[in-house]
């Protein structure tokens, strides 16, 4: 064992000592290599913040898109409901404002119930003169009043 240690000591190079200038050169070289590794750090940081902003905008756009899709679906449902009510109102004669159902089938049921509640529509007698008020033959209103006064009051 002692022989192996002696051989290792003989084969090992003597420890080298460095001057201050050599140490400074080694350290500055090492610092230079490290700085080169991170030379584009500012550019990467700028790109990362731009990416974060883009992701944020996409997220906001996605939220707005979902909101608009929900509004569109609501409007389409409203239009379908209104069209069903208008169609049933035209078919049955029940005003669309009285129908509250959402589907055409339900509106028809409501209209039938309203018509059953209303009962038979009374028929009004026909008027022989067509329902028009005859125009008096006495001129202006003042003259008509004077004529009436003389006929009814002065007697």
Short overview:
With 155 residues, the chain is mainly α.
Features:
5 helices; 155 residues; rod-shaped; mainly alpha
Structure description:
The longest helix is centred in the middle third of the chain and has 52 residues. With 155 residues, this protein is mainly alpha-helical. It has five helices and no strands. Helix 3 runs parallel beside helix 4.
Number of helices: 5
The poorly predicted ranges are none
Total count of strands: 0
Q: Beta fraction of the residues?
A: under 5%
Over all CA atoms, what is the radius of gyration?
51 Å
The backbone outline, from C-alpha atoms, is rod-shaped
Task: Estimate the mean pLDDT confidence.
Answer: 83
What is the chain-wise order of helices and strands?
HHHHH
Helix content: 55-70%
Biggest sheet character: none
Structural class: mainly alpha
Distance between the termini: 165 Å
Topology, element by element:
Layout: H1 2-11, H2 20-37, H3 41-92, H4 104-118, H5 141-152
Helix pairs in contact: 3-4
């Amino acid at each position: 064992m002692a022989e192996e240690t002696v051989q290792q000591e003989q084969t090992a190079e003597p420890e080298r000592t460095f001057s201050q200038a050599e140490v400074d050169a080694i350290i500055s070289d090492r610092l230079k290599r490290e700085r080169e590794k991170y030379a584009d750090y500012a550019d990467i940081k700028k790109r990362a913040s731009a990416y974060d902003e883009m992701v944020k905008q996409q997220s906001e756009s996605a939220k707005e898109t979902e909101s608009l899709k929900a509004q569109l679906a609501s409007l389409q449902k409203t239009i379908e409901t209104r069209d069903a009510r208008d169609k049933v109102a035209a078919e049955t004669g029940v005003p669309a404002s009285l129908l509250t159902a959402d589907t055409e089938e339900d509106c028809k049921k409501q209209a039938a119930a309203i018509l059953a509640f209303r009962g038979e529509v009374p028929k009004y007698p026909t008027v022989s003169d067509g329902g028009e008020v005859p125009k008096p033959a006495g001129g202006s209103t003042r003259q008509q009043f004077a004529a009436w006064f003389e006929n009814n009051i002065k007697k």
